[in-house]
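Q: What does the assembly look like in three dimensions?
Context provided by user:
Components: four
Sequences:
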Amino acid sequence: MYDIYIYASYGVTAVLLGGLIIVSFRQLSKARRQVFALEAGELKKEDE
Amino acid sequence: MSGLMRIFAAICSQHMHLSWRSGQTMLAVSFLFIAITLLPFGLGPELKLLRALAPGLLWVVLAISLLTGLERLFQADYEDGTLDRLLLVPLAFEAVVLAKLLGHYLALVLPLILAVPLAGLLLNIEAARLPVLLAAMLCGSPALVLLGGIGASLAVSVRRGGLLTVLIAMPFYVPVLIFGAAAGRAGLETGVAVGPYLGILAALSAASLLLAPFAIAAALRSALR
Amino acid sequence: MAETQNLFSNLQHSRDAVCRADGLACARGAITVFEGVSFSLAAGQALCLRGANGSGKSSLLRQLAGLLPAAAGTLTHPDPAYGTHYLGHADGLKAALTIAETLAFDAALAGYRADNDAYADIAARLGLAGCDWQFVGDLSAGQKRRLTLARLIMDPRPLWLLDEPMTALDAAGRALVTDLAEAHLENGGMIIAASHETLDFADEEVLLEPRR
Amino acid sequence: MLKALENISAFYANPTRFMALARQVHRPLWALAIGVLAYGLYRVAYVPADYQQGDSVRIMFVHVPAAWMSLFGYSFIFIASVTALIFRHPLGHVAARAAAPVGAVFTLLALITGSLWGQPMWGTWWVWDARLTSVLVLFFIYLGYIALWQAIDEPTRAARAASILAIVGFINVPIVKFSVDWWNTLHQPASVSRLARPALHADFLYPLLIMGAGFLVLFLALTLTRMQMEVLRQRLRARAPKGEPPHV
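A: Here is the predicted structure of the complete assembly.
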C-alpha cells in the first residue's frame, strides 16, 4: 500500500545522489584534461 | 562634540540625507502599503480573517520591505569609492558600519514602523493590539537591520546583488519573525504575558549588535581589497 | 572658531616621516601582479609610479593606503587612518549632494565643525562656482576632480596617494594640482602618484615592470 | 598528539601533496562508500514492517541519514571555513566549497523523502513540522552560501565572503532550530513529531546506523572528488594567460 512512496523515496535518492556523483566526476575529468592540456602546452613552449 | 563623534554623526546623517533625497524612504513606505493593499486581493476582503491575521501579516510585510531596501545599504558607497575613504578615517571601521546602519535605521526602518499603525488600519487590526505590536517591532527591528546588513555586506561586490542579499539574509530573519509575530498575537489574548517575547526580541537585537558590526566590517574590508 | 582657521593653515608635517617599501609584492588570487618593488621616500619628496596598464600601479597605491595587504615584503608608512589621503579612480562623490554639502561632509570627516563661509572660499579656490546650489551630479568630470582636491586642502595629512591626478583636468586644473602638491612638499609632506604623464612635482620615478 | 596532527595538516597544506594523497585515497574511499551502502540496502530490504507505520518505515532509512548529513555537511563547511579564515589553511576554502553542493543535495533529499513519508502518514505532502521547517531553512542557508560563491567573480574575495557567511550562518542554525521548535509547540501543543521516535528497536536501529555510515562515507568521497576538481580549477586559473581565464 505504501510501495509507491517507498519506491519514490529510493528513486529520488538514487537520482539526486547519482546525478551529483556523475556531475562531480565529469567536472573532475574535465578539469584534469584542461590542466593536462595547459601543462603540455607550456612544455612545448619551453622546447621551442 | 569631539572629532570622532562628529565623523560618526556625519556618516550617519549623510546616509539619511541621501536616503531621503533619492526617494528611498518614500519608496520603502509605498512598498509597504502596496503589499498591504495586495493582501486582501489574495486573501479575500473578509474583515474578520484579516483582523486575525493582521499582526503576522504586518511583520512579514515589514520584513520584506526591509529586505528590499538592503541592497542600497553599502552598494552605492562601494561603487563610488566612499567606502575606501571611510576606511581611512580615525574612527574604527566597525563604528563606521554602525553609523551607516543607524542612518539606515532612522531613514528607512523607523518610517516603516511608523507607517504600521496606518497599514494595520487597512487590515482592521484592533487598536488595543497596536502598542504591543509597535513595541515588538521597535525591539526586533534593530536585529533585522543588523542581520540584513550582513547579507548586504557579503553581496556588496555583486552587481544587482539584491536577490542574493535577500537569500542570504532570509534565514537570519526567521527567529525574529517567529517571536515578533508571537508577541503581536499575545497582545490581545488576555493572560498571555508579552514581556518575555519583547525580552527575546531585544536579546536577539543585542546579540546582533555584538556580532553584526564585526562580520559586516570584515566582509566590506574583504570586498574592498 | 579657532578650528575653522585651520582649514587654510599650512601645517608643517614631521620631517621624520618616511614611506618605504622593501621587496613588496602584490597578488590577485593566485596571480602575482608585481613583486620585488622597493623604494624609499622621505619628508618633502614625491614619487611617480609608472608602468603599463595592469602593471599594478593602482594596486600599489591601495597597498600603501592599507586597503590591500601586501603578498610579500614590508611596507613602512604613516597610519592610514590619520596620515594618508587616497584619491583613487572612484571619487567618492555623491551626485545628489550640492558642492557645499559635499564639502561639509569632507570637513566633518576631517573633524571640523560646519562653516558655510569656509566652503565657499574653498570652492572658489578650486575654481568651482555655485557652491550652495550646484549639484555634484551636474559637474563635469574635471570639475568633480577639482572637488576631490578639497579633501587634501581641508585635512592636513602627510602622505598623499594620487591615482592619475591629472585625468580630465584642463591646464588651470593641472596647475592647481601642481601648486597644491608643491606647497604640500614644502611643508614636509610626501606624495606618491601613479601617472602616465610627466608630473612636475615628482623627483623620482618607480617603474613597475610587467611580470612575465 | 596535537603537535603531530598540526604537522600532518601543515604537510598537506601544499595542494600538490594534497593531490598526491587524494589520488591514493580516492578509490578506496569510493569502494568503501559503495560497499557500506550496498550492505545497508541489503539490511533494509529485510527489515520487518513496523506495526504502526507498516512498510513506509523503510523511508526512514534514507530520510533520517539524509537529515543527519545535512547538519553534518554544514558543520563540515563551518569547520573548514574556520580553518581557512583563522588558521589560514589554504585547503579550508577548497573543502568548504566542495562540500556545499553535497550538503545541499542531502538536505534536499531529507526534504523530499520527508514529504514522501508525510503523505501516507499525515495525509499531506507538507506539514510545518518543527524538523521539516528547520531543514527547509537550512536548505536556504545552503542555497545562499552556494549562490555567494557563484556570484563573486574573484576567487579569493569569494572565499573570504563565503567563510564569513559560513561562520555567521553556523551561529544562526541553533537559534533557528530553537525558535522553530518553540514556534511549533506553540501552534500544535499536542502533536509529537512522528519522525522523532523515542526508542528504536534493534531491528530498525542497526540498518539505520549502517545507512548513516554509508551516507557519511559517500559524503566524504563526494567531497574529496569535488575538492580535487576545485584544486585543479584553481591551478588552471593561476596558470592561464592573463586576460583569458579558462572557461570551466
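Follow-up: The CA atoms of residues 65 and 80 of chain C lie 6 Å apart.
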